[in-house]
Design a protein that fits this description.
The protein is of the alpha/beta class. The chain has twelve helices and twelve strands. Helix 4 crosses helix 6. The longest helix has 21 residues. The structure holds 1,4-dihydronicotinamide adenine dinucleotide.
């Protein structure tokens, strides 16, 4: 059975080829992303394996079906980039990796919070220039601060566990409250209360049509002045223009992003020799109190090993039994 990988990087090849030692798939790696126009490259393959910025809309799924693809394997948890209804109608099962290492993303969330708060990225550059002054590097203690966690599933909970160790007070918002979150001594509240009371707000919910631009101008206006906002979930949760306005006014004190609404055009590529065409991303990068990473929350050895193992196991299950516990089209 042949699996074609879209948007593949050298590390995908490394981890999947190693894991495939326990399976017997033929793996073909493409650097190009999957969209309607590139679907025909999957001709001859039984399955495609895709990542967060591949675009599996109805046209793309139809084109995949036409070239004989039978299964779609997401090597990620989020599936906002897949038209699930179209996949069901076309009888194209879609499997995903629901949890590979919540700690990987949670630990990156903390890296962003601590870096932005204590300005270690700026201190690193300063000290290398023999500038040992402290002006501009003032931070605040995390101890006793209130952190709002929007989405208390696996990653939100893992983040909450770490923050408990810092002595933070935790408020969660989730339509499906999690007993394990309460057992940390954390409380649930409605979004409005979470916005009003939090010193730091961290987003850990999936992106869905209902919560697109959850963090808009009105939401930011109801937060504490100078709040720190962290998004390691999906870019579309934040209205970027509203965030820029709030950074300019000082309402938003800090912004950390591992994801960006228009990231599919930029992330996972070296564009250092090119002119950046996105004015919002360019503007964000000018703020000293904004920290951006290129969707690397998941990027640990443990997570990549788990992603490869679960993805290939999902496909093997589909072949052997016709069904799979990680099928999101069933
Ligand atoms: P999960 O499914 O375990 O938890 C998500 C939680 O969000 C659930 O408890 C759900 O009830 C809640 N939720 C749903 N809609 C909500 C809403 N409107 N407001 C608040 N909560 C809501 O998912 P997990 O594993 O914790 O992942 C969360 C998100 O993190 C993923 O959807 C994905 O977008 C993102 N992610 C980012 C990665 C990165 O590398 N930066 C890697 C992996 C995931």
């Amino acid at each position: 059975m042949q699996v074609v990988f879209y948007s593949s990087q050298s590390y995908d090849k490394t981890f999947f080829e190693k894991t495939n030692g326990h399976f017997d798939f033929t793996l073909r790696f493409l650097e190009t992303s999957l969209r309607h126009e590139t679907a025909s490259l999957a001709k001859g393959a039984d399955a495609v394996c895709v990542f967060v910025n591949d675009c599996l809309d109805e046209a793309c799924l139809t084109a995949l079906k036409e070239v004989g693809v039978k299964w779609i394997a997401l090597r990620c948890a989020g599936f906002n980039n897949v038209d699930l209804k179209a996949a069901k109608d076309l009888n194209l099962p879609v499997v995903r990796v629901p949890a590979y290492s919540p700690e990987a993303v949670a630990e990156h969330t903390l890296a962003l919070i601590l870096t932005l708060n204590r300005h270690t990225h700026r201190a690193y550059n300063r000290v290398r220039e023999s500038n040992f002054q402290l002006q501009g590097l003032l931070g605040f203690n995390l101890h006793k601060k209130t952190v709002g966690i929007v989405g208390t599933g696996q990653i939100g909970l893992a983040t909450a566990r770490i923050l408990t160790g810092f002595g933070c007070h935790l408020i969660g918002y989730d339509p499906y409250p999690n007993q394990a979150f309460k057992e940390l001594g954390a409380e649930y509240a409605d979004l409005e209360t979470l916005y009003q009371r939090s010193d730091i707000i961290s987003l850990h919910c999936p992106l869905m049509p209902e919560n697109h631009h959850l963090i808009n101008g009105a939401a930011i206006a109801s937060m504490k002045r100078g709040v720190m906002l962290v998004n390691t979930s999906r870019g579309g949760l934040i209205d970027t223009r509203a965030a820029i306005m709030a950074l300019k006014s000082g309402q938003l004190g800090y912004l950390a992003l591992d994801v960006y609404e228009q990231e599919s055009e930029f992330f996972f590529r070296d564009l250092s020799d090119e002119i950046l065409s996105d004015d919002d991303l360019s503007r964000l990068m000018t703020f000293p109190n904004v920290l951006i990473t290129g969707h690397q929350g998941f990027f640990t050895e443990e997570a990549l090993t788990q992603i490869a193992t679960v993805t290939l196991t999902n496909l093997q299950e589909l072949i052997n039994t016709g069904s799979c516990c990680n099928n999101i089209t069933e």
